[in-house]
Amino acid sequence: MRCLYLEANTFFPSKWLTDLSELLPPSASLDAFDISAAQYPPQEWLPDNISLRIHDAFQPFPKDCIGKYDIVHVQCFISLIADNDPGSLIDNLASLLKPGGFLQWTEIDAASGRKVEPADEAVSSAATDRFIKFMQRPQANHSERTSSWVSQLDRTLTDQGFSNAKLTRYGIPPRDYFSWNLNRLWAADELIKKGYRGDPAEANIEKLVESTFEEFQQGVAVVADLVVVIGKAPS
Question: Which of 90, 103, 146, 190 is the most buried (most CB within 10 A)?
């Protein structure tokens, strides 16, 4: 068996593969692609059957990968899909699959985002409200990067030749709220570093992120549904 993993916006790009390596025999070939090696761990820390490579998922893949994979797993590309249309990326991913192979896509449904109020009613969530507004405002020069495509991903796969496409929603359990929200703050920090200022009414974005973190520590949270879509490539 040969599996490929692609993910954006994570500190642990090889975690899915290392978990999978414990479930599959050593003969399974497990590969990952990322646009750079900046977030890759040293190769010697990984099982022998895991290979980490550098490639932009939006560009044609190397010839030695075309039609070679039984499973392609992709997740967290929501901030990279332009014009609300993942079609070109799906075509590129489909080229990697063997006939009858499976594409699995895990994504955040930003439209389902919501605030979780703290148990202590005396705790303010004002900064979190402003943080949500900051994160939902279109990025400069990327006003068309909306995310309604996520909830339609099963239909999109069907339209592009996949069969038995199925979409399943998963909520985030309370035990994961804190780590989830740390990831949201990290994503905001990355946007700030790239020059995104969000709501013009926010004079000090860095202070807003700091205040939101303080509220998270007191039981406020921002959560959203995770969507998992699986489709089978033509045989």
Answer: 103
